[in-house]
Amino acid sequence: MSETRPILRLGSRGSPLALAQAEAAKARLGETHPELAAEGAVEIVVVKTTGDKQQKRRLAEIGGKGLFTKELEDALFDGRIDVAVHSMKDVPTWLPEGLSIPAILEREDPRDAWFSSKGDSVAALPEGAVVGTASMRRQAQVLAQRPDLKVVNFRGNLQTRLRKLGDGEVDATMLALAGLRRMGMADKATAVLSTDELLPAVGQGAIGLEVRADDARAHDLVAAVTHAPSALRVNAERACLDVLDGSCRTPIGVLAEFGEDGKNAAKVRLRALVAAPDGSRVWRAERAGAAEQAESLARDAGAELRKAAGEAFFEALADIF
Ligand SMILES: NCc1[nH]cc(CCC(=O)O)c1CC(=O)O
Known about the structure:
This protein is α/β, with parallel strands linked by helices. Helices cover about 35% and strands about 20% of the residues. The protein has 11 helices and 13 strands. The strands form 3 sheets. The protein has a 5-stranded mixed sheet, with helices on both faces. A 5-stranded mixed sheet has the order 7-6-8-5-9, sandwiched between helices. A hairpin with an 8-residue loop joins strand 11 (about 250-260) and strand 12 (about 265-275). Bound molecules: ligand PBG. The site of ligand PBG has 9 residues, from strand 8 and helix 7. Tetrapolymerization of the monopyrrole PBG into the hydroxymethylbilane pre-uroporphyrinogen in several discrete steps. InterPro entries: HemC, Porphobilin_deaminase_N, Porphobilinogen_deaminase_C, Porphobilinogen_deaminase_C_sf. Belongs to the HMBS family. Monomer.
């Protein structure tokens, strides 16, 4: 049996969602490059996350930033993989020296999905209901709208969360619609929350492909599959986050969209918010303008929010670690 060596090795985390995203990247690469459509040309390499001890050390060390991306980046540097496939939501705004993200795939719907048998929106929940989420962004926005609700930490894969919901451990929870769609489970959601009710996270619903900056071959293969409008939106959102310099414990939502109807490719609208984790304060900024200006508009919105919330607010959140 002759051994066929892959032309491109895609690194992925092992979760069902990560693997679905890696398959989507592989399919897109195959559509664009005929040589990558051949059996065995693109290999998906599962990069195992290191032990819990290691993870704990990292979490303390880096405050959670890069927790989901670090192992894949190590594999890139080691040459075990040529491309790292990421949820852009999990990618810090600063990349390690020597790495770049030349491609963002066409973005899925960035909205959050709602799960509850007690009401089909945040507003519809009964007084004092319990919402499960580990996301500061979701927690803060839910409490801002409904200070009477109780938010509890909530983790686990989709099946686990749905079971906990069914068991009555919580009355409602939220997940990114994009992830559900990619796993063919969007029909399990009760409703989709509007972006006015819950502003999504930076990069939510977008898949990014990261390579070593000095690997011209991988870079060029990957760059050819980028979806320019999605990249523009995600890069603008990341520019805003960069100015805000938030940790994963800072409740931040940012969404860039095209036009008023989301379709006019020449115009971009960006909404951003920063909130206190308990929802007691929310600062919002909005910008609209030419698409070429997206990143500077985004930085400007970020600067406005930084100023409005005040340095003391960001320092207090940083102290949580
Ligand atoms: N933080 C975990 C994470 N990172 C990306 C997604 C979903 C997929 C996406 O946003 O592209 C999720 C799960 C979730 O928030 O429901």
